[in-house]
Amino acid sequence: MKPKVYVTRIIPEMGLDILREVADIKVWQDELPPPREILLKEVENVDGLVSLLTDKIDAELFDRAKRLKIVSNYAVGFDNIDLDEATKRGIMATNTPGVLTETTADLAFILLMSTARRIVEADKFVRAGKWKTWGPMLMLGQDVYGAKLGLIGLGRIGYAVAKRAKGFDMDVMYYDMFRNEKAEQELGLKFVELEQLLKESDFVSIHVPLTPETKHLINEKTLGFMKKTAILVNTARGPVVDEKALYEALVSNKIAGAGLDVMDPEPPNMDNPLLKLDNVIILPHIASASIATRTKMAVMAAENCVAGLKGEVPPNLLNKQVLDKMKK
Ligand SMILES: NC(=O)c1ccc[n+]([C@@H]2O[C@H](COP(=O)([O-])OP(=O)(O)OC[C@H]3O[C@@H](n4cnc5c(N)ncnc54)[C@H](O)[C@@H]3O)[C@@H](O)[C@H]2O)c1
């Protein structure tokens, strides 16, 4: 009997093929995530689960999933999984680090530049028939070249954004819970405390995971440190930013703009006032959305899952303590 795997959304075929070689797989076919009750029912009889960041993988789910050996998350972020609860039950959890780093850094830089130079607003302006002539005061934005960039989090993606920034002769500083002297030397980065970073940066880009410590790290107080001309970019997770405080900071001209790939909640309610602001760009969580990268993520998620099903240590195991408790 082949093991059973449930995949909570259609992912690139190359990943599904790898899973099919060793397992009987069932793939949720809808555009929207499986409703909670369906997910809880489906996990009752599976050995492996390929989950997305939209699936809450918690104690309630683990209690129903008596056979589950591995949860393979199709994302580098894993704030949707309760790792402690997985470990308690001897269930492995994995993610897809590295393969999406450059694609996500590209999008962070795209958002930074598009917000600085009002690209979305300018495009809408043309389509609305408002372009009358070359205007000396038309759509003036901010220079990216030579500006000061503050990175909150200098992990894989933060570092990749710093590399891009060096090409624009930006002066890059970072704040992280760990200092990275190697990166400082390689790219000429400056390690600073969060307050200093916020006070000095023209652009602030967030690259920390969502944890209890980073939830609302950007709030009324920390936004208050930022320059009036500064732009905030968030490609990490929505709840790292207190959106109400961000809205207040934008409408009271405490900061100049924001580029957001992530929101809290996702999608935002259509009455979210941020949607009405011209100096905010909002994208539907697409930072890793290139064909090549999503394919690599599917392969990596599938390989993690297969390793777990075979009782091997998956390449991207998140809860290493589980190895002592693994189910036979
Ligand atoms: N928008 C998207 O589609 C998308 C795509 C990829 C990743 N992400 C998000 O980006 C995050 C970062 O990814 P990564 O691969 O660079 O992760 P990473 O683990 O390599 O880097 C995270 C960095 O944040 C630092 N950090 C963690 N907690 C901190 C804290 N409390 N204070 C200061 N620094 C802290 C870590 O030390 C590390 O250097 C992911 O966790 C994910 O949530 C989003």
- CATH superfamily annotation of the largest domain: NAD(P)-binding Rossmann-like Domain
What average pLDDT do the residues reach?
Answer: 97
What distance separates the N and C termini?
Answer: 16 Å
**Gyration radius, rounded:** 21 Å
Report on the biggest sheet: 7 strands, parallel
Question: Would you give the CATH topology of the largest domain?
Answer: Rossmann fold
Number of helices: 12
Order of helices and strands: EHEHEHEHEHHEHEHEHEHEHEEH
How many β-strands, per DSSP? 12
Name the helicity range. 25-40%
Shape: globular
- CATH class call of the largest domain: Alpha Beta
Q: How would you explain this protein's 3D organization?
A:
The protein is of the alpha/beta class and 328 residues long. The protein has helices at 13-22, 36-42, 59-64, 83-88, 101-116, 119-127, 156-167, 181-187, 194-200, 220-225, 243-251, 291-309; strands at 4-7, 24-27, 48-51, 70-73, 92-94, 148-152, 171-175, 190-191, 203-206, 231-234, 257-260, 280-282. Bound molecules: nicotinamide-adenine-dinucleotide. The site of nicotinamide-adenine-dinucleotide has 30 residues, from helix 5 and helix 7.
